[in-house]
Amino acid sequence: MSSSVSASLSNPTPLQLHCLVLDYLCHNCYTRTASAFNRDSTIRLLDPDGDEILGHPAKQHSGVNERPSSSAESFEILLNQVKLRQEIRTHILSGRVEDAIVLLNAKFPSVLSEDIAVTQAAEPRITANNMDYVSSTSTEPAHLLLNLRILAFSEACRTIPLEYPPKSAPVPTDAASHPPFETPTAIPDQCVDNNGQQLALLLRAQKLLAQLNTLPNAADRATYLEELKNVAGLLAYKIPEKSSVSKYLTLERREAVADQINRAILKRTGLPLISSVELVARYTHLLWQAANQHGVKARPGAISPTRSSKLSSTETDDAVVSPFDLHQFLGLKP
User: Where is the CRA domain (predicted)?
Assistant: First the structure.
């Protein structure tokens, strides 16, 4: 990070702080809190005559994205996109994978289709001054669609409903405005045509096999073939939720796919994959950890993330910088 960037982030402007918070709220789909925060804490710019400057454009200062907080129209456009991302995520977490695919094709068609022109630039190359976050999971449309179809297959094998949100967990007040989806009541065993259901599941597995065989990369085909074999093991159990392959029916499995789809939407719409606050925290953690491992000594007057005051000259004579601890940092009093 350049010295000018570091200096700016160590002494942020009110507008930067406002946009950091708003960026975090929007990125994590806290739509109601984001609306209230934007309404009550918008930074107003004044001209020399004291009149408010309306609709000032979005700016970028020192690597921190600043959204157009004073433009009601721009903010509503952003918020509507956030709500769509949250709705798709809720579909997946509720096990309604087909509904998520329909909504993705309608609102974000480039996520699952390679035929759609994508405005997002190529994958960023890491440089000394580049703080872009690269997704740890694939954002290729063919991979995403296969992951969704495999999840839909495992959900079709389910015999015990998995409710979302769980009854033991409170419903987030910042969830999207639409009500949570209700999980269908389990159908009694005697009312289920087991033979017909098994046949339908086998046909779905065959379609998945045909779909993965269209992947151009041999390594990808081998990886997904192994995954499909494991997931197909659900067919061998009357109650797969109590089997050795029950991990494919957990909420964590849904969450992993939902997170991957969310990152793909952000990439295809030209937005950062993680919030600016998380990016800066990750950068700070790695920087101070590396300095600690190499025995770097802090300079007098340096700002330490492990304490609220600057280091004195006597404290830095033999002191090696401490690794960054986010929980400790958040507990510090200014």
Answer: 196-297
* Predicted confidence (pLDDT) per residue in 235-270, tens digit: 999 999 999 999 999 999 999 999 999 999 999 998
What's the token pair of residue 311? 């280091």
272: left (phi over 0), alpha (psi -120 to 50) or beta: beta
Q: Domains of the chain: which residue ranges?
A: 87-268
Q: Could you tell me the pTM of the whole model?
A: 0.72
| 85-111 pLDDT, tens digit each | 999 999 999 999 999 999 999 999 999
219: buried, middle or exposed (CB in 10 Å: 19+, 13-18, 0-12)?
A: exposed
The first and second tokens of residue 139, run together, are 């954002």
d(CA 297, CA 118): 47
Cα 118 to Cα 270: distance, rounded to the nearest angstrom: 9
Tokens of 57: 């454009």
In degrees and rounded to multiples of 5, residue 121 shows phi and psi of: -70, 170
3-state SS, residue 320: strand
C-alpha–C-alpha distance, residues 218 and 247, integer Å: 26
DSSP string spanning 67-88? Answer: --TT-HHHHHHHHHHHHHHHHH
Give buried/exposed letters for 64-101 (b at 16+ CB in 10 A, else e): bbbbbbbbeeebeebbebbebbbbbbbbbbbbbbebbb
Tokens of 309: 């005051």
